[in-house]
Amino acid sequence: MFSYYLDLALRSLKRNKVLTALMVIAIALGIGACMTTFTVLHVLSGDPLPGKSARLFYPQIDPEDMDGYEPNKEPARQVTWIDGMNLLKAKRGERQALMTGGAVPVQPAQSGMDPFFSDARFTTADFFPMFETPFLFGRGWSEAEDNGKARVAVITRSLNDKLYGGNDSTGKILRMKDTAFRVIGVLDTWRPNPHFYDLNMGNYSATEDVFVPLTTARDLRFERNGSMNCWGRGGGDNEHIETATCVWLQFWVQLESADKAADYRTFLDNYSKEQKALGRFQRPSNVRLSNVMEWMDVNKVVPSDVRLQSWLALGFLLVCLVNTVGLMLAKFLRRAGELGVRRALGASKREVFVQLLVEAGVIGLAGGVGGLVLAFLGLWLVRLQPADYASLAHLDISMLLVTFMLALISSLLAGLLPAWRACQITPALQLKSQ
Amino acid sequence: MMLQIKPILSALRRHKAGAVLIALQTALTLAIVCNALFIIQQRVAHLSAPSGIDEANLLVIENSWADKLSKEDADAQQRADLMVLRRLPGVQDAVASNSYPMRGGGWDQFITLTPDQTTAVGDAAVYLGDEHFMDTLGVKLIAGRNFRPDEIRPIANRENVMPPVTIVTKTLADKLFPDGSALGKPIYAMSNTPTTIIGIVDVLQTQSLADWQMRNAYQSLIWPMRLVGNAYYILRAKPGQLAMLRKEAVKALYAQNRMRVINDDGVMGYAEVRQKAYDSDYGMAVLMGVICVVLLAITAAGIVGLTSFWVGQRRKQIGVRRALGATRGDILGYFMTENLLISVGGAVVGVLLAIAMNLWMVTRFEMHRLSLFYVLAGVLLLLLLGQGAVLAPAIRASRVSPVEATRSV
After folding, report:
1. What is the pTM for the complete model shown?
2. Domain-wise residue ranges, chain A
3. ipTM of the complex model
4. Structural domain boundaries of chain B?
5. What is the C-alpha to C-alpha distance for residues A362 and A368, in angstroms, rounded to an integer?
């Protein structure tokens, strides 16, 4: 029966090519616009560390003085050196890491290569196991190397390709800012999106190329990058930022369960109170603890333009659907005579209804294919944009299926009213006027 | 004409679904188009805001030193660099600074009128530069004086010193001293040391152009300091020399000292800076424009399709009317009026939808209130679109000959 309906649908669609084309194009445009924007939204609001992100937490404490104090205002989004080191050394989490972004002048040993700057991350030992970074060669460093301000570095696969032709470079010497470092590990391709662990570097920026122990970086006065917020008499000069009243470091902690997270929050609260008693903090304790996805929300990581575009695309699809409903209504009602004959020859209302829905579905599928082509085109245009997330805009399998489901469902919805109206035709009346 | 409205309404009652669909489509399109036009206007206004500098002739070079330099060495190297750059043929002037307008972010400073004030009067973008800064960027001094060479001091990155004098933009001066008495007054930038306003410049864009920074637009200040170490060299080329300077300036700098890093993307003309700064605005405006055009086209196609169907359905009735003495004009008028009635109905709903949509965007996307002008423009646009779309089927209807009345189908 279905194949017969399909045959009928195709015949009917062929009979009025312009109208069919109009409906297919309308659905294709709506679906194409929706899928382009939804894919971008989907990519941008993705989980950077699936399976792990719920167990990684970003604590916030309020170390500022009473200037500009408002109760329960969001506390600083980074920590000072002193607080960061205290939290790190307290080891209250399963794992914890303190970090900042930076830049290092790399001086290649090869004679033909000019020195260049690489983005770097100055961090502590747990960074690698906590974020489950994949290693191509070697390993990360240990706490002992943190404490010993060891001259060791982990580099990414792309820098390894550039400097060492992709060979195992562990044990090799890498000169940075006139200092010799030993490469101890090479990361395999790793680009969490968003760049969740430090959003000051751009929400979707690429992973840094060089990783160096934080203590070493400070020892050598490596240039740090990112945001720094000072209060009181704090100044951010590079010599004294360990003692300055400035926040400039990110601190992450891994907590295995909700209970542990609650415990950690209590610990942060107690820590704030203790620091206040000591006179270091002035404000009442105000602590927050967000997991990765919550932290992305707090920072409004997904650009509002992208969300706005998604809503607009949805509105666009709605107009296209209303348009299709109108055109289908015209098309089905025009065939009142033919449908009357079918009804008179014994087809039930239900059968006519299903027949018309099949026709709507065929239009939907054709629109879906067109929409897919348009979505590919749209995403290609998005990738041409200079935004830092542009290169991530690719259609994956799940979005591909969503495209077809959306096209089919929306065209069936659009077909409901016209098909129902067409079923209400009294066969006798149609036959009479013939 | 007026007499026709009643029969049209009773005819519309017979095909409610189609009429409601056209009205609904008009309403939705109106709501989206109004808001899209408004977004386009906002973005275009944002990206055509003047920067106050001689963009056509400016070149920015990001320079970093490859090896460790003491402050004194870095200072000496920078002086040598600036000397080389200023002597280059084709260069009108050059300056070293911590940043440049429209960079997309950078050093901001809370400004207060007394040292113990805790809430800022204004938030200012900080530019460091010597007495060549204004001439290089092409900024216009409107009151007071420029820095003297003896007022300039070199500072290292993130060194915390307060210069005794400063030059501010007119916008900042007016914000701090609304009575226009800014010249000669001290201001404080989170420090006990005052810095005195000695000059006021006309327009100088800030570094950040982000929406949330727009309340601080054009609030900039210049401090008589030269940032030694890694800095931006800003060059003002003589007219027509910019393209040549791109290569020559970098070559001259490397000839002065090889131990430096200038990345390929670290050399930018202002066309690129502007493009980078405003790209999302531009993209959004273009996207909104495309959406408007496509939506209007789809809506027009829908109206044409449905009206054609109605014309086909009513050929016989049209024939009867013609046989009974209706002119072609009457038939044309009938379909045009019918569409106008539906469109007006849709427009009323559409205006409400447009305002509701805008209010929702105000809360969700920090959008401004929709001005009535865009609503009216949208209404007019859609009424015209409806009339235009209905014209072809209506003309076809008017050509139906009275003989049709006698045919059975």
Report:
1. 0.79
2. 2-45+303-433, 53-298
3. 0.78
4. 2-48+278-406, 68-258
5. 10
